[in-house]
Amino acid sequence: MFKDIIGKRSEKVKNTVERGAVKKFAEAIGDVHPIYVDEEYGKQSRYEQNIAPPTFPRVFDYGEIEDFNLPNVGLIHGEQIYHYKRPLLVGEEVYCYTEVLDYYEKTGKMGLLSFVILQGSGEDKDGKIIYTERQSVIITEPVRKELVR
Amino acid sequence: MTSIFDLQIGDSLEEITLHPVSRIDLIKYAGASGDFNPIHTIDAEASKAGLPGIIAHGMWTMGNLAKLFTPYLEEGFIQYYKIRFAGMVFLEDVITLKGKLQKEREGLLDFTVAAVNQDGKEVINGAITFKKYV
Question: Which of A124, A127, B91, B120 keeps 20 to 30 A from A60, CA to CA?
Answer without folding.
Answer: B91
